[in-house]
Amino acid sequence: MRMSGGIAVAGKKRAEMMEETRAKLIGSARKAFAEKGYAAASMDELTAEAGLTRGALYHNFGDKRGLLQAVVDQIDGEMAARARAAASRAANDWEGLLAEGVAYIEMALEPEVQRIVLLDGPAFLGDPSQWPSQNNCLQATLETVKRLIGQGIVKPVDAEAAARLLNGAALNAALWVAASDRPQEVLAKAVEAFRVLAGGLLVTPGR
């Protein structure tokens, strides 16, 4: 029994050490990618910053692209949580749905989000709508749309279709803001259009 307990403790310590190593590499990469961009960031420099070796990076993430995926997942997950928090402060489900989308679009002004998630992410990882973190956002939006349909606030359209279109609109608006030379100006246009488009789902316009 003591031996099995010792093995369990050792296994737990190894798992904790691996998680600590991953966290260090993600933190270092997040800083480097934000400051220099993914392409210009040096693997030797970011591993040295974390006090680790290239071997640790390869072991935990496979390669530099795998590390970028982990960083994007972390930041995009934080963005989703912040957007949901904005929704939770709204007066009702409909206002919450709008607040969540608008909050996501507004984050495109933040340098770290802009460079890592909205510029380098799509360029090196492909279609953002296929990222795991985006699927989590979709499920949250889907549940809200279903409630609004049940309450008679939103038209009885297909809930998944509506959720996908709303999330797609917010994501593409954020990508537009991030790529623009006039992000503040584009943000105002994008938010206004998002609200108008979403409003088309209402049973009673202008609710």
Automatic annotation (TrEMBL):
One annotated GO molecular function: transcription cis-regulatory region binding
PROSITE patterns for the chain: HTH_TETR_2 (PS50977)
Keyword Membrane: no
Keyword DNA-binding assigned: yes
Residue span(s) of domain HTH tetR-type: 19-79
DNA-binding region: 42-61
Gene3D superfamilies: Tetracycline Repressor, domain 2
InterPro entries (UniProt xref): Homeodomain-like_sf, HTH-type_TetR-like_transc_reg, HTH_TetR, Rv0078-like_C
Keywords assigned by UniProt, alphabetized: DNA-binding, Plasmid
PANTHER family in the cross-refs: HTH-TYPE TRANSCRIPTIONAL REGULATOR RUTR, HTH-TYPE TRANSCRIPTIONAL REGULATOR UIDR
Record's protein name: TetR/AcrR family transcriptional regulator
Organism of provenance: Azospirillum ramasamyi
